[in-house]
Amino acid sequence: MPLLALILVTAIWGVTFVQVKDAVEIYPLFAFLAVRYAIATGALALVGGRRVLTLGRSGLVAGGVIGVLLGLGIGLQTAGLERTTVSSTGFITGLYVVLTPLFGLLLFRTRVGLEVWCGVVLAVIGLALLSGVDAGSTSGDLLVLASAAAQALQIVMVERYASRYDAIALVLVEMGACFVGFLAIALALGELEVPHGRTVWGALLVTGVFASALAYLIQVWAQRRISAARIAIVFSLETVFAGLFGYWLADDRLGVLGWSGCAVILAGIAVAEPTAGALLRRWSPETRSTTTRDNRHK
Length: 298
Known about the structure:
mainly alpha, 14 helices
């Protein structure tokens, strides 16, 4: 089921927050990103290297476009995080939930229903509660906002390309574009060095194989079935999982507002995504008791 697969992706992204935080404390950030996407590119090349030939020129351009947008999103977010607060970064990054349907409407006249806009509003409120929205620096916040715009555009463009090209080949080119971009930055900054230590290699392997290659492959597959606007709302769960795994693995404490924010984000997904709403109704105690009574009467 596409929805459950996407939730798994956001869970993977959430747990890697802790791993990456530990790794980049002892290994340069852009070198980490270069090696991460080198691993992702290599993993996909093992199974889909020959498939790239099926893309043609237009497919290579498509993969390059979404790769550049993904790399821009991560790079700008990192630069902004160095200048503003973590909570501000978390909230502003989550604004791609709003920007995705707007870009879809402006660029491709893709209209979304009222229930999706209701889900967007709830997701933004939940992100605000979860992040706390402490005031950060203007320059840092603007960089993070640019990052959110790049991520929103990536989601919109994936929706446009997902059904046109082979998924593995498209994501392979996307990962390759990210690798080339981050390698160039790491070389320019003089940061590139051989990774060392279990902490760094563990984070690189998990983020390279699962949080990059597998995650974006699932995104392309899912966007053949779910709209970009709904994908963006589901992706807001990344912030929820980051908070949950931070609570379990790093002794972070969410507080009442944080937990409330998680609940509101989940409500937004339930409103915007019919499958999620159906699952919640099916799993609710009232529904289960009604089903049990009905079965007894049969």
